[in-house]
Amino acid sequence: MTQHSGGRAGTGEALDGHHTTEPDLGMLAARVLLSVQRELFSALAEQGFDDIPPRTGAVLAYLRTDGIRASELARASGQHKQVIGTVIDDLERLGYVERKPDPADRRAKLICPTERGLLQMEAAASIMRTIEERHASALGTQEYATFKQALLRVAEFQREVEHGHQAPGGRQDG
Prior knowledge:
Layout: H1 25-46, H2 57-60, H3 70-77, H4 81-94, E1 97-102, E2 105-113, H5 115-139, H6 141-162
Antiparallel strand pairs: 1-2
Helix pairs in contact: 1-5, 3-4, 5-6
């Protein structure tokens, strides 16, 4: 996480030593992520899914009922393939996913939810709906929808910069 223009990474302090009052994008994103993760995984634990740590969210959040390739999970989550592979191994050992041949390419494997995995997906979707409804109620439905659209655009733009499709500072490459 970096501090906005001229700041020191994550300190809330500008280079001139004066404390800034506004947290930067990285700090805000981390606060939201960590808080939502804590609430989600705590509620999942209360519903009997107490064996999955938050790091498994890199797979569980993008898992599809009909299965998905590990390479697609890595791309969607922004995690390295090796990290995703380790998480898949853990979830397979815990009984949440299984590897099946991809009908489109028998050499490839699909990561598919098991019955327990499907139950976890349903529970997580319900918990996330509750969290989102609470925020929409607090901010107002339109403001929350606008916030999510803006956050999605920022996330997409950041991913473009990260992958070299945009020059830092917003200029198009090329």
